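Here comes just one.
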Amino acid sequence: MIRTPLRPLARILSARQNGENPDAIEHQNRRIRHEQMRDHDRNRAEGRLLVLGVCFLCAFSVVGARMGLLSVSDPVEPRAHAPGSIIANTRADIVDRNGNILATNLDTHALYAQPHHMVDPEGSAKKLVKIFPDLKLERLTKDFTGKRKFLWVKKKISPEQMQAVHDIGDPGLLFAPRDMRLYPNGKLAAHIMGGSSFGREGVRAAEVIGVAGAEKYFDSYLRDPANAGKPLELSLDLTVQAASERVLDGGMKLMNAKGATSILMDVHTGEVISVVSLPSFDPNDRPHVAIEGDVSDSPLFNRSVQGVYELGSTFKIFAAAQAMELGLVNANTMINTAGPMKVGGHSIGEFHNKNYGTLSVSQIIEKSSNRGTGKLALMIGKERQQEFLRSLGLFDKSPFEIIEASGSTPLSPPKGRYSDLSAVTISYGHGISTTAMHLAAAYSTIANGGRAIKPTLLRQAGPVMGARVMRQDVAASARAMLRDVVAGDDGTASFGDVEGYFVAGKTGTADKPKPRGGYYDDKVITTFASMFPAHDPRYVLVVTLDEPVETSSGKPRRTAGWTAVPIAAEMIRRVAPLLGMRPAIEPGEVAGITLTSSN
């Protein structure tokens, strides 16, 4: 702004010459100056107000937008997270060998509360207890009326329960979306599935993690977002699994056993087609781990890989097979099994103090002679016996792909204490404790012609066999001996024969050890390890019962021939057709007819 003098000299001199009042000029210039100053100040004030108004508009716009965003979003549970951490809630499905769903995800909701927003905390607590009977009214009321601003009420709720909570109408009861792990078959294959739980949790998502079984073993694969559309394909057959569980459950109850397990394995691939452990549980509602009592009494205990037992006379075929492999004997070699027999100062006896006399190697297996296999073990030697059993995988933990198998290391004498007596007792299944899974893999080696097998839970594209453990002719002779155990006149597994499927196998009855040493007098572990068909085996089936007792005759009978064998036979009868196996008719002899040519 250009300042104009109030009394410009030129105009003052001109006014005086013309007789005008010079003060009027000053007053006019002063008025003009004041008006200019007023307009300048007004423009400056209006500009400042405009800038301030724009600032206030931006601030209120940001605040309004944030409030609007919060009003349409769920609040986040207060918990510490690393910057940029994201909860991944994807998990791949698990299917059986035919594509049937074993485990999948289900969209559901969790229920949480914001007590400071609740209208009627005590009334809402009472209504929630009616919807969820497992909730405690006193605890819920205390939480709702306390100082907490956030709490989970239920981690998983059904659509019906969600609607019932919604009908309560309290604004402090809210729902969070969840991906819940669902096992649509309930208890079926429960010990293989294992179960899952929530890991990291937020209001908008929750991380599903495996806690046991295959869910835990393959957790990294199942959680990988890249595998969301690639289900994990297992070797199990759902229909065979269902039939096996039904038969074993009925047999366990019939034989008054406290527990049971069965394993059906493909002898050429090591694929486990079915594996059952009883008692079982529902992985959709997995029970808590027992903190008292015997761990084997818990339904979570997987007897197929966690149950490390002495499996008795099922081991005798290994002694016979190794002796034949070394060329020490053949199936017809005669062995004197008459007593007495002492090794390391200990007497070796027979079941019920029997005295079989002189038997062939085949008869030793058929009649299940302890002394006979003991003498074979002494011929073999303890060092060679250890090497052979190790080649069958009987000294190492099972490679079966569930997390529980990591603790399945067999129990055997340490190398420095492995004596001749150890070799003798181990030859008939005492002094060494293994799992049913180990036994199934070892019998598969005999069944497939002498190639080592590793059990697997994953479906295989074709045969997967390891190094050769015994010659084919030795394996064939061993299978013939096992067939005599079932079909022979003096076999211990005569109840195991299934018409059309030519079952071969070996029984085993072992006294159950006490927790603090020694053995029970009236408690046993019975096992029947079988293969079918005997001439060209495709599958091995192992059935083990814990503390069975058969009482149909009024007299308690606890041996495997009376307990495990009939259950295994019924299982083969049920599952063989499901496996696509047709019964074969064994040709009989035509008496009194001579075939002649017409030419």
Observations:
- The first strand starts at residue 94 and ends at 95.
- Confidence is low (pLDDT under 50) at residues 80-85, 595-599.
